[in-house]
Design goal:
The protein has about 500 residues and is of the alpha+beta class. The protein is built from 7 helices and 20 strands. A hairpin with a 2-residue loop joins strand 4 and strand 5.
């Protein structure tokens, strides 16, 4: 996913969030809890903030939360959130005097399940509120109301659609759903009650009183009181439902998707590089094996073939045949060694420092076996378990092999010493002899690379990123190869 597309989606998310967050106005609110107990007349808490008279034609929404401290044991009593116009009581919602349940009073009609009010309250019509938690009526029947219970809080929202010159239309929701997406239209019918009433007001009073002097309840707690112009003002939008959270979440999601795609692409690229490097290493190994077969085995086999032809030609000269056969045996021995070296170089289980040192010891002993030059080995047996790629391992061996071959053929030494050690992440291999050196007249450092195979030794050392020094005096020659094991283990041979 490209970032421009992500930006467009983010703008859309923010736009939708802003649109969803566009609400009407809260005209008045008093959110603090108020304990109402034995306040038959009540006291205005509105302070003239909002008012409507008989000429109004708009709609208002009222909300409050109640926590009854009285229950059915203290009935009959009343506890209401009531609109007043001057000193004239208008619509009241809560617990009507005769209803004994969540209800409205001062209504223009009496509810179908309500009693007609006594003569003393003839003007106070009552209307039970439908509830999603109706009371049991026995034998599977349900009563069309809910009783207030001590310490069981309920939220009540009611809407007044004002009608000029007539009774206003009231809709009450007992414990409505007020989560994101909820509206007055999608409230369940079981908790919706409708009736007419006079709801003109310029005051709001909270009233509580007993109708039976012998029963005194503890009153009600009113809180979260508001007057607004839309049901949406009462909808509770959690922080994770806000436009900024949705926008930020969309951006984070898009960033996560983009990051995941980037990581996946990078991994694919790294895998392609790794496969390409493996293929390159395989090609290099194949080329090296082909080169070794051609240079070592090819030349040895060609020499054996040539000597065999000479044996045929000199078959009548036994002494000359013996010379040729001796040379054939020598060439065959060299061919076996070359083949053994190639097999060792390509075997995966030989890719270790221990295997390298052991093979150097094997080669040294075989080379100087029966020769007047004594070979002394100083090779530790407790080497660290380092994995060395086959190409690096083979190049190290060829440098050591060249140095030992020079001692064998040219140094005329009484003794040659082969030493290996690992210190501070470096492998150091030293081949030191007490022969006559390259020249007899003083030290030679970096002698002529065209002689004694030094050019090949230096090129092999550079190939594996190692350091080679050659010091030669009349008292002998020292060849020192230093290899950084961390580097060769990580990179192998770079070509």
């Amino acid at each position: 996913m490209h970032w421009p597309a992500a930006g467009v989606l983010l703008v859309l998310a923010l736009g939708i969030g802003c649109a969803l967050n566009t609400d009407a106005a809260v005209l008045w609110s008093d959110l603090r809890p108020r304990v109402i107990h034995r306040t038959p007349d009540g006291m205005d808490i509105l302070g003239g903030a909002v008012k409507r008279d008989d000429t109004a034609s708009d709609a208002l929404f009222f909300k409050f939360r109640v926590n009854p401290l009285s229950d059915v044991a203290t009935e009959p009593y009343y506890a209401v959130f009531q609109l007043f116009e001057g000193d004239q009581g208008r619509l009241a919602v809560g617990n009507a005097p005769e209803a004994w349940g969540y209800s409205a009073c001062y209504t223009s009609a009496t509810g179908p399940s309500n009693k007609e009010p006594p003569a003393a309250y003839a003007e106070v019509g009552e209307f039970n509120l439908q509830s999603s938690n109706p009371e049991a009526g026995g034998l599977g029947a349900l009563k069309p109301y809910e009783l207030p219970r001590q310490n069981q809080a309920r939220t009540i929202i009611f809407k007044v659609q004002y009608v000029p010159g007539g009774d206003d239309l009231v809709t009450v929701w007992l414990s409505p759903r007020v989560n994101r997406g909820d509206t007055e239209e999608n409230q369940p019918e079981m908790l919706t009650t409708k009736f007419p009433a006079n709801a003109s007001f310029d005051q709001i009073r909270l009233r509580h009183g007993e109708l039976d002097p012998g029963k005194r309840g503890n009153g009600w707690i009113f809180s979260d009181m508001q007057v607004a112009t839309s049901f949406n003002d009462f909808v509770v939008v959690r922080f994770w439902q806000t436009w900024w959270f949705l926008g930020g979440g969309s951006l984070a999601l898009l960033a996560g998707v983009a990051g995941s795609v980037r990581i996946a692409e990078r991994r694919k690229y790294q895998l392609r590089l790794q496969r390409a490097e493996q293929e390159r290493a395989l090609e290099r190994e194949r080329a090296r094996i082909a080169r070794d077969l051609h240079d070592d085995l090819g030349s040895s086999l060609a020499r054996i073939s040539l000597l065999s032809e000479l044996v045929k030609e000199d078959k009548d000269n036994p002494q000359q045949v013996l010379v040729h056969v001796s040379k054939i045996a020598q060439s065959a021995d060299e061919t076996v060694r070359a083949l053994e070296e190639i097999v060792w170089a390509v075997r995966p289980d030989s890719d270790s420092l221990q295997s390298l040192v052991e093979y150097i010891a094997h080669f040294s002993n075989e080379l100087f076996d029966g020769n007047k030059t004594r070979c002394r080995l100083d090779l530790p047996h407790d080497l660290p378990p380092l994995v060395i790629p086959s190409d690096v391992r083979h190049n190290i061996f060829l440098v050591v092999k060249e140095a030992l071959t020079n001692v064998f053929k040219h140094a005329k030494a009484d003794e040659v010493r082969v030493q290996a050690k690992v210190t501070d992440g470096n492998l150091e291999i030293v081949v030191q002899d007490n022969g006559h050196g390259f020249k007899e007249n003083g030290p030679i450092v970096g002698a002529d690379d065209t002689r004694n195979g030094l050019g090949n030794m230096r090129r092999r050392a550079e190939t594996i990123g190692s350091h080679l020094t050659v010091e030669s005096t009349a008292a002998g020659t020292t060849v020192r190869l230093t290899v950084n094991t961390d580097r060769v283990r990580k990179n192998g041979v770079e070509q």
